[in-house]
Design a protein that fits this description.
With 586 residues, the chain is of the alpha/beta class. The chain folds into 3 domains: 261 residues, Spore Coat Polysaccharide Biosynthesis Protein SpsA, Chain A, CATH 3.90.550.10; 157 residues, 3-Layer(aba) Sandwich (Rossmann fold), CATH 3.40.50; 149 residues, Glycogen Phosphorylase B (Rossmann fold, 3-Layer(aba) Sandwich), CATH 3.40.50. 37% of the residues lie in helices and 20% in strands. It has 19 helices and 22 strands. The strands form 3 sheets. Strands 1, 2, 3, 4, 5, 6, 7, 8 and 9 form a 9-stranded mixed sheet that branches. The protein has a 7-stranded parallel sheet with strand order 12-11-10-13-14-15-16, with helices on both faces. A 6-stranded parallel sheet has the order 19-18-17-20-21-22, sandwiched between helices. Helix 7 runs parallel beside helix 8. The longest helix is centred in the middle third of the chain and has 25 residues. Keywords: Glycosyltransferase, Transferase. It is an enzyme of class 2 (transferase). GO terms for molecular function: glycosyltransferase activity. Its EC number is 2.4.-.-.
Length: 586
């Protein structure tokens, strides 16, 4: 029995690589083939993506198909689905992460009834089907819970199938067809397929024992006119079937039982608990802990984050865990093997919770200190307290060679280890070499600068450099500043200025995608990760030699460093890059 998994890729290589790697590692190559469709229609991305797959050892384990022009989701999938000889086909989105025996369980569900034509797994993000990750848990725990749950073969018929991860029986594709391409942008095409099959007496069900994490892009905007038109078309065809399915589905109890049991489970056996000062992960040490937590969960190590302060600003981030407030640790009975922290002012909370565990559960967890700051940090902070809190750790990790040497000298009896972050310079350095340093475009050359509120000197240098550059340009340039005290005078010649305060991570990526040059001079390591995201968006990066980015950025052609002593050097580098780049004015 053969299964073909189809993964269409339209954007960001890092996210797609995670999905491909997880799918490859959880399936049997003898009975499963994976077809990856690069539908970006961008030759630079094509070459870049292919090299990444090769470097990770995935290229020989999959079939990579490159569309020279973007065909769109429906056509890209249809071209591969039609004519398949496999018994099963699976469409898998690039913003997913499969877990455990997901495919085996989905096939078992499909085999349980010859009338089952479509199968969805359980997930954290899908209309009606979602099962939330409980507070203090991760995708690995929920996957294990669902796999072990006694369903008594109660496979639930669903209202409408969704295509984030959709298994189809090929015999019914041949008999009743695939996606209807008349649904522009794809809105409604999956629901149309679902109802077409249902009206033929077939079934679409959920396989609750399979769990697939789905970030979700939220692309189906209900205010979109095309979405509205497609919705009318769908209801004209299948309104009675749709309404009947909803009424029947609301009477199903298995999913509700699962949700209730998960939410009421208090004991949480966690491998690694990160204690963080905030749930805001747009930059700094908190972002590093978030990335590490995600990376651990990707490889099956249950990890979560407890925040001592909850930011009410709404962010949309890729989290493979459900964060909690620090005070909830005591009610949920979180029992970690390791407690990790990064910032000094969380040491009290760490020690307090260790003492609670010792008293309540009669064991002592290991303490991991992540020394994430770099050389510039020591110009403004108390190094003695830094050493004191680092000494609490049973193990100390750092991503900074400077900090490793500094702490090893101060704490000779401790072993200070270097780590590679989830976005590491060694891992991505070779890939970043192949990004074109300059590209032609009709768009305006755009400079983006990012800064924290408490790094005033860096903000001042950037603001001065941009102000001086404006007087020497012979064309218009857009300058976007977000965060911190970056501010330039209004009415500068040749500068179109946009200023942002706090914005979600997805919005940061959107800005970087339209930018050409990224500048940062913050002392915080997490901003180096944003700089690497900028590189993936084909930006040139300028970073202060003492900045947080310096600790993680690879040495490649697209990165240059400046001294933060004054603005003259930065000004010269900006002018050189702008003048070398052949983008046109508006």
């Amino acid at each position: 029995m053969k299964t073909t998994i189809i993964i269409p890729v339209f954007y960001g290589p890092e996210q797609a690589l995670r999905a491909i790697s997880a799918a490859e590692s959880t399936t049997n190559r003898a009975s499963t083939e994976i077809i990856v469709i690069d539908d970006t229609g961008n030759k630079s991305f094509n070459d870049f993506f292919k090299k990444m797959l090769s470097s990770l050892g995935l290229i020989e384990k999959i079939t990579l198909k490159i569309n020279q022009e973007n065909q769109g989701y429906l056509k890209a999938c249809k071209n591969e689905i039609i004519g398949l000889s496999s018994e099963y086909a699976v469409i898998l989105h690039q913003d997913t992460l499969v877990t455990g025996d997901w495919l085996t369980n989905m096939i078992k569900t499909a085999e349980s009834d010859s009338k089952i034509a479509l199968v969805n797994p359980s997930t954290n993000y899908a209309p009606i089907l979602n099962i939330d990750i409980p507070k203090g848990s991760s995708i690995n725990q929920i996957s294990k819970f669902l796999n072990d749950y006694d369903y008594k073969d109660k496979f639930i018929d669903i209202v409408t199938a969704t295509d984030f991860c959709l298994l189809l029986k090929n015999q019914y594709i041949k008999e009743y067809g695939f996606f209807d391409e008349s649904y522009e942008k794809g809105y409604g095409a999956v629901a149309d397929l679902h109802f077409r099959y249902i009206t033929q007496g077939l079934r679409a069900v959920i396989s609750p024992s399979s769990f697939v994490y789905h970030k979700g892009s939220g692309i189906e905007d209900e205010q979109d006119e095309i979405y509205k038109q497609n919705r009318v078309k769908l209801m004209d065809r299948y309104k009675d079937v749709h309404d009947g399915s909803i009424e029947e589905f609301t009477n199903k109890t298995v999913l509700n039982d699962i949700r209730e049991q998960l939410s009421n489970t208090k004991d949480r056996d966690i491998d690694v608990l990160f204690i963080s000062p905030s749930n805001n992960i747009t930059g700094g040490g908190v972002k590093i802990m978030h990335n590490m937590c995600n990376s651990l969960n990707e490889v099956g190590i249950n990890s979560t984050i407890a925040s001592t302060w909850v930011d009410t600003f709404k962010y949309r981030q890729d989290r493979l865990y459900k964060e909690i407030e620090y005070k909830e640790l005591y009610n949920l009975n979180i029992k970690p093997k390791v407690i990790a922290y990064s910032l000094d002012h969380n040491a009290y909370e760490v020690i307090k919770y260790v003492r609670h565990i010792e008293k309540q559960y009669k064991y002592t967890p290991k303490i991991l200190y992540i020394a994430q700051d770099v050389e510039g940090w020591f110009e403004y902070h108390d190094t003695e307290s830094f050493i004191t809190y680092a000494a609490l750790g049973d193990q100390i990790l750092t991503v900074s060679p400077f900090v490793q040497g500094f702490l090893q000298d101060k704490l000779p009896n401790k072993k200070i280890d270097m780590i590679l972050n989830s976005i590491s310079s060694n891992f991505y350095g070779d890939y970043l070499q192949i990004i074109n340093k300059t590209q032609s475009s009709d768009e305006l050359f755009t400079i983006t600068a990012m800064m924290r509120d408490d790094t005033k000197r860096g903000a001042k240098i950037i603001s001065e450099a941009i102000t001086n550059v404006s007087k020497k340009l012979n064309r218009k340039v857009k300058f976007i500043g977000f965060g911190g005290d970056i501010s330039i005078p209004s009415g500068l010649p040749n500068i179109i200025y946009e200023k942002y305060e706090r914005i979600p991570e997805d919005r940061v990526k959107e800005l970087l995608a339209k930018s050409n040059l990224f500048i940062e001079a913050s002392f915080f390591q997490g901003f180096g990760l944003v700089a690497i995201e900028a590189l993936f968006s084909n930006n040139i990066v300028l970073s202060s030699k003492n900045a947080g980015a310096a600790g993680v950025l690879p040495k490649v052609d697209n990165i240059d460093f400046f001294t933060i002593a004054d603005s003259n050097e930065l000004e010269e580098k900006i002018l050189e890059i702008v003048n070398q780049n052949n983008r046109k004015d508006d």
